[in-house]
Amino acid sequence: MSMECGVYHTTYEADTGLRRLPAERIRLGIFILAVVIFPFFASSYWLNIANQIAIATVGAIGLNILVGYTGQISLGQGAFMAVGAYAAGLFTLRLGLPWGLSIALACIVTAAVGTFFGIPSLRLKGLYLAIATLAAQEIVQWLVTHWPALTGGTEALVVPAPRAFGIRLNTDFAFYWLAAALAGGTALFTANLFRSRAGRAFVAIRDQDVAASVIGVNVFRYKLLAFATSSFFVGLAGAMIAFYRNIITWERFTLETSIIYLAMIIVGGLGTIRGSLFGAALITLLPALITNVGRSLQGSAPALAAQLPNVQQAAFGLVIILFLIFEPEGLSKLWRNVKDYFHVWPFAYRRGDGGR
Prior knowledge:
This protein is mainly α. The protein contains 15 helices and 4 strands. The protein is about 70% helix and about 0% strand. The strands form 2 sheets. Strands 1-4 form a two-stranded antiparallel ribbon. A two-stranded antiparallel sheet has the order 2-3.
């Protein structure tokens, strides 16, 4: 008598499914249910936090497409988000376009700008490419602050509140549904992207671009496509910020923003969609938690509470260092360890260790 041990699929549809195991589908269903019921019980404060996490998730997935999946280091996240935000705002203010069309056009404009700054990737890689994207950050920031006729310069750009069916969508509750839908759509598109020919080419370039070129991958073409795809979603995140806050200022899109998003994908896990979500949630919640601790200590320990803003600045660096030392693959790897443990529970062995 023999027993099957493992996961066996009898059709191509089952083998290539996004959620191939019943447990995966159950977890996804529970997560979607939690997302749906959350806004009905959450306060305005936590809805605001959730909206920030959704926007950060879109931007982190966009950056992860370029850095985690394709291996092209970028320090221009803030610049591309600025392009998306200002483009969306200007399309609405100057041309009078509907907010939905403005967002779509802003994403296309950001993809074009990202493709332009991705041209150096033909000759540059690693640290040198990072410096080139850092130059993009500085160039875009300089143009935003020194072109007042177009962007308003250092003055804030105020955009009208988005509306649909007579409902103002930039309230915390209403925007939650839009943000959740866009974050979910971004994650679904990205998951399918890396099951396609282009996505596999991205991963091949990350693993070894010379070998990818030898087997017929047009490395430069797919690098530019990676920059365009990444910038498209980064621009979407910027446009979401513009219509959620209704005020666009260059201070939201500085080099610090680029570093924060890079921290998100490092902490969450490079080359994973769930890592982008985990990293966006942790890095967004961290300052909020520190702020709440500071408020609770104002009465009992005001001197300590006064130092917490400085602690917040150091917390990002400390979190990155700790993850790089103890878990370089980020929160995504920790989650995978938990799943692997329960996959074989109550047995002590793990998958892939030969039964030892």
